[in-house]
DNA sequence: CGGCATCCGGACCGATACTG
DNA sequence: CAGTATCGGTCCGGATGCCG
């Protein structure tokens, strides 16, 4: 569509906006954090993250697989084993996502304090 | 103060998880993009982003103000004028958010292609 | 101009139970 | 172990209309 080669999130019609939103959903950053050191199994991701139900985790993983960010490998064994790993594309997202995560951890205190101050002023 | 860095997104109870989620909501990255070059008025942000209703934009801006990421300055004039700007804390988030935005713009094509391929396989 | 009030639909999320 | 099925709730986000 665009004669230009680039996507622009400031354009309401640009697909990059949809992509950007996906990256910001509730569990995506946490899944990436779990997978950043290599292949992990479903149960491992689940316990890494904690407090996520199987259904929602499956949904998240399926979406990421569909978007080409992770791979899903099934081993036909008993008991079944399924392993997840970042694709090359997914790995390239690790840096950006990590930057946001680190900011959140580093500044959560300040945000919370600001929130309290704001609420007290009401 | 905690001797350790206290906050860890992989801990379900950690407040940083809430903060991380806020950063990923639908309009936050776009507001930051609009404010990155300096102070802007409500209408300017609105037209920068496009396709966002006043109500939702107001909600987003209030939340960001409450979290200490932007300032809101009202000028008692007729017609009224309200200006928004990033705080120091907000500015420190500009880099991380920009990294994700750039990734989205650079790789949206690949994500879309992967999505199509995945859907065709069904 | 920059909101706020109201209503509303649907996406997202979760608890629980069950299965190959 | 790694999901699927079902049901239900919340809440985000949008449309519309009014106000100082």
Structure write-up:
2 copies of one chain form a homodimer. The first copy, chain A, has 122 residues and is mostly helical. Chain A has a single domain, classed as Arc Repressor Mutant, subunit A (Orthogonal Bundle), CATH 1.10.10.10. Chain A contains 5 helices and 3 strands, in the order ααβααββα. Chain A has helices at 16-23, 28-35, 42-49, 54-66, 88-120, and strands at residues 40-41, 70-75, 81-86. A 3-stranded antiparallel beta sheet of chain A has the order 1-3-2. The model of chain A has no long low-confidence stretch (mean pLDDT 93). At the A-B interface, helix 1, helix 2 and helix 5 of A face helix 1, helix 2 and helix 5 of B. Chain A binds a DNA duplex (20 and 20 nucleotides) through helix 3 and helix 4. Chains A, B: Keywords: DNA-binding, Transcription, Transcription regulation.
